[in-house]
Design brief:
The complex is a heterodimer of chains A (about 240) and B (about 160).
Chain A: H1 4-9, H2 12-44, H3 58-85, H4 88-119, H5 128-149, H6 153-167, H7 170-180, H8 200-232, H9 237-243
Helix pairs in contact in A: 2-8, 3-4, 3-6, 3-8, 4-5, 4-8, 5-6, 5-7
Chain B: H1 3-29, H2 31-34, H3 40-44, E1 53-60, E2 66-67, E3 73-79, E4 84-90, E5 102-109, E6 114-123, H4 131-140, H5 150-161
Parallel strand pairs in B: 4-6
Antiparallel strand pairs in B: 1-3, 1-5, 2-3, 3-4, 5-6
The chains are: A mainly alpha (about 240), B alpha+beta (about 160).
């Protein structure tokens, strides 16, 4: 197998150059998608037969929850690359993704609580879905704290990579918690194998919002990663030439 | 991929497998405790503890909701298709409490098999649709459980108050 592309992608300079071309596209498309999805979902979608208007929080809650879990999966992938190939860029990606994951995780928990109060009658219950999501938040915070506690970059990279990999077992638990146990949280509405149990005029803005949130995440991540690259590679010739 | 990287890849996979097996065993051992509530079938079969606080959940049997005219006392039956349990509750029911949909109640199961609830939460299902679609379903299937609970009453009251 030819691994040259993989190593090229791992070169900080190459990534810095190419990501500069992606950024404006990511910014424009993610902004357009999120604005369209939210205006459509919040103002034009029909209300729900049972929940009325309070269901509309899903246009934030569902994308945020998707991202909170996806970001963690990407961090675990970056962790594996860090451990196996010792590619510095993967560790930088792991580092810059963690705070974004925390933000989505908090957004998901807060919007869920706001929705739970009128719908279930309570802000919070200790059921398997909600608790595993809270554990995900603590994992994110733990990874950030671990990096802050170790001063040498290489040691921090290894420790954070191992912690990220260990925590990845929580992701299938979050996903399948509603199927494995009795939970107050309902089962999945969007399923890969079946038709979604949602009217199409609500589903389309939701799907747009999910794609928009993914692109928004990529945009923020690329922005943060470029700053991290400049800061870690500041002693190399190409960065000195870039900033001078 | 050279030999050193292959070895590290195997180590990473072993780490994942080890942690996965450990967590799976732990969850298997705790499986009953992780369940948020007992189902009516479990309560009817005597698998749920009696006389101590726990949660029970199921679908409200349509037509089983009986309200006291003088107080906030209400009783209804919950079912999961395999068993039924009568629930007594005094208090305000959540907005989404409707016949035919799910609830989770916190309380104690008496030795007489009646569940005395101190808190009732509505369990929402994963279906979302506009009101017109629900109306079409009702017209096509008159026997299908209709939302005739407190939520509908409150909604009607609200629309009266709005003057619409």
């Amino acid at each position: 197998m030819n691994w040259t592309f993989f190593h090229k992608l791992g070169s900080p300079k190459w990534f810095y150059d190419i990501s500069g071309k992606w950024l404006p596209w990511l910014q424009v498309i993610s902004l357009v998608l999120i604005v369209v999805a939210l205006v459509w979902g919040l103002a034009f979608s029909p209300s729900d037969y049972l929940q009325g208007n309070s269901y509309r929080i899903i246009f934030i809650h569902v994308p945020a929850s998707f991202l909170a879990q996806s970001v963690y999966l990407m961090m675990a992938t970056a962790a594996a690359v860090t451990l196996i190939w010792k590619i510095k860029l993967a560790d930088m990606a792991l580092k810059v993704m963690a705070p974004i994951g925390v933000s989505f995780c908090i957004l998901s928990l807060v919007t869920g609580a706001i929705w739970g109060q009128p719908t279930w009658g309570t802000w919070w219950v200790w059921d398997a879905r909600l608790t595993s999501m809270l554990i995900l938040l603590f994992l994110y915070i733990g990874i950030i704290a671990l990096r802050g506690a170790i001063h040498t970059t290489e040691a921090a990279a290894k420790a954070c990579a191992i912690l990220s990999l260990v925590g990845v077992v929580n992701i299938p638990i979050i996903k399948f918690s509603v199927d494995w146990w009795n939970t107050l949280h309902q089962g999945a509405t969007l399923k890969l194998t079946e038709k979604p149990s949602m009217a199409p005029e609500m589903l389309w803005p939701l799907l747009l919002a999910i794609v928009g949130f993914y692109l928004f995440f990529m945009m923020v991540m690329v922005l943060r990663l470029r700053i991290e690259i400049i800061s870690r590679e500041r002693k190399t010739r190409w960065v000195k030439e870039l900033v001078s | 991929m050279n030999a050193v990287r292959k070895q590290r890849l195997i180590l990473v996979l072993l780490l994942l497998a080890g942690v996965g097996v450990a967590v799976a065993l732990m969850l298997f051992a705790l499986r009953e405790n992780i369940n948020h509530y007992y189902s009516p079938a479990q309560m009817a079969a005597g698998d749920a503890p009696t006389g101590q606080r726990m949660r029970g959940g199921g679908l409200v049997v349509p037509g089983s909701v009986a309200r006291d005219t003088e107080s906030l006392k209400v009783s209804f039956r919950i079912s999961d298709g395999a068993g039924e349990v009568t629930v007594h509750y005094e208090g305000i029911l959540p907005d989404l409490f409707v016949e035919g949909s799910g609830v989770v109640a916190l309380g104690t199961l008496g030795s007489d098999g009646v569940f005395a609830a101190t808190e009732v939460l509505a369990k929402h299902d994963e279906n979302y649709m506009p009101p017109e679609v629900q109306k079409a379903i009702d017209d096509a299937h008159p026997g299908y459980p209709k939302p005739t609970g407190q939520a509908t009453v409150q909604r009607e009251l609200r629309s009266l108050q709005d003057g619409s």
